[in-house]
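Posting for a labmate who doesn't have an account.
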Amino acid sequence: MTTPTSITKQEELLTVNIHGMTYVPGAAPGSEIIPLFLDRENSIWVLYGKFAPGTKLPKHFHTGTVHFFTTKGQWNYAEHPKDPQTAGSYLYEPAGSIHTFSVPEDAKEAAEGFMVVYGANINFDGDAFLNIRDAGAIEDGILSYLKSKGLPIPGYITPKGAGFKNLQTHANK
């Protein structure tokens, strides 16, 4: 077999590095995120998150799968307190799962991690519907926050049609 012809031309690698990027507020007090990849059309979102001790995200239902790799600190689901996720832990969450992310109040450092999420989180306050977070809602929230603070748009990766928008072009949008 011969080498196939590339159908996706790349002038440059589509890459970002969290070092030197700006965190923006996350879904709950004590949480901050860095967008890495946001795809509204396919509802795929890739974020790097930092969660201060005592942070608790709303209980949420996943419409799609999640991959979460913990890089620092410790966190757990309130529903599974005996299964802490620590630096080096990889967690797979199946679609249809429901849980509440929390960092212990007495944690010595913030929990940090890299997440790849397919679909949406349907969030609840107790058992009452709160909101839906998907790639579009996250991108809208990030752009609105940055605009309100007069900050530049970060260089995250996002699809455009069949190809990808150039990172520098998006960062200067």
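Reply:
Got it, the structure tokens are right above this. Helices lie at 135-149, 167-171.
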